[in-house]
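anyone else get weird line breaks when pasting these?? whatever heres mine. first is seq + tokens for prot A
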Amino acid sequence: MTPNDPTITMDLDPKVIETLAGVTTATLTTVLLKKGLRNLWMRGSRPIRPGQPRLVGRAFTLRFVPMREDLATPESWGAPISTRAAIEAMPPGCIVVADAMGVQDAGIFGDILCARMARRGMAALVTDGVVRDLHGVLGTKLPVWCSGYAAPASVAGLTFVGWQQPIACGGVAVFPGDVVVTDDDGAVLIPAAMLDYVLEVAPEQERLEGWIMQEVMDKGAALPGLYPPNEENKKRYEAFKAAGRKA
């Protein structure tokens, strides 16, 4: 797989985005758990500011490896394989997922790079590493999920080696074109091959849990037999749906 692999599809149907924007990352982990996928929540990727919107997009991957002094230099920023070149290859609407190996003392992106991504229409940046120039990054309005911030530049601890390759981010295997959903609970990966299943099952799971929450909050219902629902409560829920009501 190369940065220009024509088999990687990055477009995402607006209806898919609309559907997944109504499903929490918590619900997505439950739906995928039922298919045996337990490791899809990216550790260390937290919203840089509260209240960032839930976002959905294809993963555009960036890969860093440990810093090597002959490669990780300020001069490398102008090389053909660089974060600068990668940004110009990103399609609008993608979610940039960067494998920074969890390094905490080298910011992979600062305000200028984030400003360029925002200007080019990237949906978000997700990384298990940190950013720098915090005040400026916040000013770009680019939604960011990361593990913190640090003053040193990326080359102080990392070497950038490529984009649109399989990576590991927060302990999760991410392939170009996988779907990423972000919200206040972090970032969750939907494998591209599982997307149709998730679109079929996740909205119903979200609706069911909304009904259960309503039963608990409004009616004081006890959890046994309700969460998960027994046969009696399944019938009540089906009646609720048939009546066209919303939780």
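and prot B, same format (seq, then tokens)
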Amino acid sequence: MAEAARRAAFVRSPTWILALRQTNGRGRRGRPWADPVGNLAATLIFKPAATPADGAKRSFLAALALYEALAFYVDRTRLGLKWPNDVLLDGRKIAGILLESSGTAERLEWLSLGIGVNLAHTPPRAPDADFGPVSLAEAIGQIIPQQEFLTVLADTYATQEDKLRYFGFERIREDWLRHAIKLGEVITARLPKENISGIFETIDIEGNLVLLTGRGHVTVTAADVYF
């Protein structure tokens, strides 16, 4: 993602950057991201005609693209999507998504989608993780090369952009909910100053989490979710 930001001014068309080896991986909110050699660390840098709010919705496109790319290698019933931007395999985290952007309040100058996938190695479990990690190699007994997986992922992501262009975010929302984990069940959203537990009812048209709690419907814009 640092390389994508460095190149942003010169990018003329959507460009994928693949790190064969990464020494300073990071996740959401500045958390470290374990990235052994052989796992995927890739970033898509592009310039969508979008507001920052619309750009943020690309995390759902990326999650769906990852779901479809992984479904080339494992039965899709073993996969699920966790709000806001994790992909799970057999109930364990196999992939994460991180967005960065630059622009004004009205329009993005550029957007980058950072994607990490445990292809070859299962990293150690983080001390505060609600569930452990898993790798694709652990699940299928085969190591998929980074370049091969990225080729599949680039194709599935392009498909999601086409769906957004022709059908709008409502179609993306419907597809994401179809694969969402714990929909209709009680989950907990951990915010900086409070935890909110309730039935995971839906995500709204802005991609926010909607919980049915004892005090009614609560909309959560950003949080860590625990089951």
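btw re prot B: The chain has a mean pLDDT of 92. The chain has two domains: 2-178, 186-226.
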